[in-house]
Amino acid sequence: DVKVTQSSRYLVKRTGEKVFLECVQDMDHENMFWYRQDPGLGLRLIYFSYDVKMKEKGDIPEGYSVSREKKERFSLILESASTNQTSMYLCASDRTAYSNQPQHFGDGTRLSIL
Amino acid sequence: AQKITQTQPGMFVQEKEAVTLDCTYDTSDPSYGLFWYKQPSSGEMIFLIYQGSYDQQNATEGRYSLNFQKARKSANLVISASQLGDSAMYFCAMREGRTGANSKLTFGKGITLSVRP
To answer: What is the mean pLDDT of each run of 10 residues along chain A (114 residues)?
Structure first.
């Protein structure tokens, strides 16, 4: 089974802090994604990566950056955390070759910025 | 315009009955795929079922089936014989394009399903 592991289930940080959310997948997937989920808004794509050191902006990249130094690891960085970044963050991965393959998700990180 | 529309804010169903969760989509690409995910209160996203735009038959996976009406651009999820464990949020998502190279999924806002004993 595909395993996508997010480093924390719950995280509390302070305004202005630099925050790192880590995600690791064990199935050699080319593509990795970061979403945020807010009530009534569904999942919104922040950034995605289709290869090591490659990244593309999603729908809401402002205030975030990402890093993919190794194929299995994709990090989301909040450069200077703000209270409006309090949310549920979900990491996902999938394989490039087949359009019928689902994205596989981690368990999510509930991030609170105080 | 929204690409995926899920307008039912909350649904209730009696245990052991069937329920339909609605999803309409908007795309001009002839090649696309539709996915349904379940998210229990614990937060993980569980893949349920997939329907490709060229598939001749409606997809089925156990108690889950898709009522795919291509001309109406709808892909409704049908859950038969509801169980208490089906209480969750359900998301419809679409991927456009023939290959996974354009691999982004667009999600709807989700529907909350509550199963009553």
So the answer is: 88 97 94 94 93 91 96 96 97 82 93 97
Taking a C-beta distance cutoff of 8 angstroms, is the pair B80, B18 a contact?
Answer: yes
Interval B12-50: pLDDT, tens: 999 999 999 999 999 998 889 999 999 999 999 999 999
Q: How far does A36 lie from chain B, in Å, by closest CA? A: 11
Single-letter code of the amino acid located at A96? T
pLDDT, residue B1, reads 62
Distances (CA, A) of A69 to A93, A105, A110, B104, B110: 15, 20, 24, 21, 33
**Which residues 28-57 of B have a C-beta within 8 angstroms of A?**
31, 33, 35, 37, 42-45, 47, 50, 52
Say whether A102 and B109 touch across the interface (CB within 8 A).
Answer: no
In terms of CA atoms, which chain A residue is nearest residue B10?
A40
A42/B contact by beta carbon, under 8 A: yes
